[in-house]
User: Fold Sulfate transporter CysZ from Achromobacter anxifer.
Amino acid sequence: MTALRTDSATPGNDRFSAAGAGAVSVGQAFKRALVSQCHPTMLFAVLLPFLIALVGCLLLLYLFWTPLNEWLAAEAARWDFVNRAEDWMLAMGLFSLKVYMVPVIAVAILLPVSGILGLAIAAVFVMPLVLRHVSHREYAGVTRQGKHATAVSVWNAIWVSLAFAAGWLLTLPLWLVPPMAIVLSIFWWAFAFSRMMRVDAIVEHASPAERKLILERNNGGFWTIGLICSLLNLLPPAWVILPVFSALVYAHYGLEALKRLREDRVIDV
Assistant:
């Protein structure tokens, strides 16, 4: 009896592969990620994206806080509904709307920029460390067949970061419509986590054809992980570990999916 590996699949094989891929549990990936996160190496890895995001946030505040506030104040002065609301609130003896609204909008612009910077750093620089850690311990049999991993990772981080920033800014006016502020925040961070981390989780080990197949078959699972991570992102204490922890979750989920895919492609003759 001989085991042959083939890149073609019959319809029956496709159904079996899909069933195997569907068996990769999101809960299992989170459980394994929690165990991996407690390892000293992964605890140390938390510092890199956190420190970069923190330094980036401080630099953004130092360089852009005053100009951004001045620009927003000038723009707000042109908005009729803001001026009417401002006049009404002052006439009622309440606080000035612009005094509080402008800084809040400035924070809503600058803070996510530092956050996506930390996530991009985790995807490009920390994910290889994460993959070395988990692949040696739990996925030693999953060989590396990826091509141009660094270039793919960097390009993916760039376009996802730009798309996130553009989408965040363009939909920022919708935050005035309750409860869109929370909904849009969850959506865009789910997009960032899913689109950025799922590629980096398998780019070193999966061939381009395998990567495409895994992303198609496990799209729902990747988005589910992104949604959970974006909900955790609403809790400020989670910001410290979330870039590395999300990388661990996606690494476990992606490598397990790749492992099952390759097992399904081995046919006994």
About this structure: Residues 40-138 form one domain.
